[in-house]
Amino acid sequence: MSERTHSTRILAIVALFFSSYIVGIYSAARASSQLLNSDAAHNASRSLEDKLDLLDKEAASLTETGLARSSSRNPRWFPFYTIGRFSNDICLGNNLLMGTCVISGECTDNNGVAAGSCSTITNQAICCIYQRTCGASTSYNNTYFYNSNYPAPFAGGGRCSIVVTPPDSTICQLRIDFLALSLAPPTGDGLCSTDALTISGGASQVPTICGENSGQHVYVDFNGVGSITISVATSGSYTFNRQWQFQLRMIGCTSATLAPAGCLQYHMGSSGNIASFNYVSAASSALNSIGVQGTRQLASMRYGICIRKATGICSITYSQVSSDAYSFTMTNDVGAVDPTLLATSAVQSQDCTTDYIIIPAPTQGGTNMPSDRFCGLGLVATTSAAKPFVVYVVTDANEEMDISNRGFYLSYSQNSCPVL
Ligand SMILES: *[C@@H]1O[C@H](CO)[C@@H](O)[C@H](O)[C@H]1NC(C)=O
Ligand SMILES: *[C@@H]1O[C@H](CO)[C@@H](O)[C@H](O)[C@H]1NC(C)=O
Would I find Transmembrane among this entry's keywords (predicted)? Predict the structure, then answer.
């Protein structure tokens, strides 16, 4: 037997030992818990299951019950903790959703969906996806929240909510990714009065949004260990195919993906796009209160879009998405302007008091701009070296003088520091 085969065999034996060890512990406990269940001694089985959970979960693994778990035990004293840590990693399911790697019985017990194996040590470890709809509550990381019958649309009527509770105080933020979000559009004055997504209970404000927002996201600060409620209200009297699927991510207080204070959105790419809520290049079909074609832009916004500065980067440049002439139409009458002038300096305005974005310390073509506010019907490429990288968005409560505008859809790119 060669040296190599020999060590491979030893490894295999060790792996086999540990896999049967952990599966054994879990199965034995499950078997006895089933036994106890059948004796109707539910309380006893509950506490056994809790002990079991303590064994095969690490602190970062989240529980739906939100029970405070003892963290006073020192994991290093227990060999199975080491395997538990491995098995409770974040995993990508074979349905391309994010899950948590757990022993399959635990996934079933917690109403998860098994989406493929996630460990080379044991085929008992599966990637468990938590999917929830109206009326649910969760403390699991990467819970997916969707409309009833998703991916089929929902015709509307009523309120659909989920309550998200952080498992402990090491979690500071909730990142909500709108993988799909299509609700009834705002009125021609930019009000979400037919359908509305509201997010409450956090320590930071989230504006009410509606319309088309697939691909957008928001960050909300948890208020200690208090819960955050995500609620979609829809009006059944308005015929529309609503649809949503959100990914709910727990962000640890020391995570590199924690958004800085004041950022409703946080982008981490060295380049990418930012857009106002309900941005679509096509005009709104709704009329506004003065009877002309309304806006897509949502009223009463006040938030920051932050971009994480990459290493070796000194500034950031924002420009309109060039394929879309309407990609900066924030104030004034889109229809009254020669379309060839849209997106040019001829219609960029810095005299902004109603709806505008703020780019701190802006320069255009190397020249400092007199004001950091931008509105009108075009934005010339604008660079800022102010840190952190942020664009503030402000819209007032009255969009009636804004005719047929869409909002903004910008691309950003981070610029390397000059070589000295
Ligand atoms: C479980 O415990 C609760 C109180 O802790 C008690 O009211 C209940 O009767 C118990 N159930 C069983 C099945 O023993
Ligand atoms: C939750 O999952 C995300 C991946 O979607 C990961 O980045 C994050 O660190 C996880 N949070 C915790 C507290 O483990």
Answer: yes
Q: Return the CATH number at 182.
A: 2.60.120.290
Per-residue pLDDT of 115-147, as tens digits, reads: 999 988 888 899 999 999 999 999 999 999 999
Check whether residue 272 and residue 138 sit in a common domain: no
If asked whether residues 173 and 187 sit together in one domain, one would say: yes
For residue 54, what is the DSSP state?
H
> Of the residues 62, 142, 308, which should be mutated to test ligand 2's pocket, given the most ligand atoms within 8 Å of the CB?
142
pLDDT of residue 401: 78
* Domain end among 99, 129, 159: 129
pTM of the predicted structure, to 2 decimals: 0.79
Of 287, 286, 290, 295, the closest CA to residue 405 belongs to: 295
Indicate which residue's Cα is closest to atom 4 of ligand 1. Answer: 43
Angle between helices 3-38 and 79-87 (to 10 degrees): 90
First and final CA of the chain: distance in angstroms?
61
Residues 294 and 408 in one domain: yes
46 pocket-lining for ligand 1 (C-beta < 6 Å)? no
The number of distinct structural domains making up the chain is 3
Radius of gyration of the chain, Cα coordinates, nearest whole angstrom: 26
Q: pLDDT-derived band of residue 420, with 50, 70 and 90 as boundaries? A: confident
Contact (Cβ atoms closer than 8 angstroms) between residue 105 and residue 34 = no
User: Residue 141: CB within 6 Å of ligand 2?
Assistant: yes
314 and 342 housed in the same domain: yes
Answer yes or no: do 301 and 200 share one domain: no
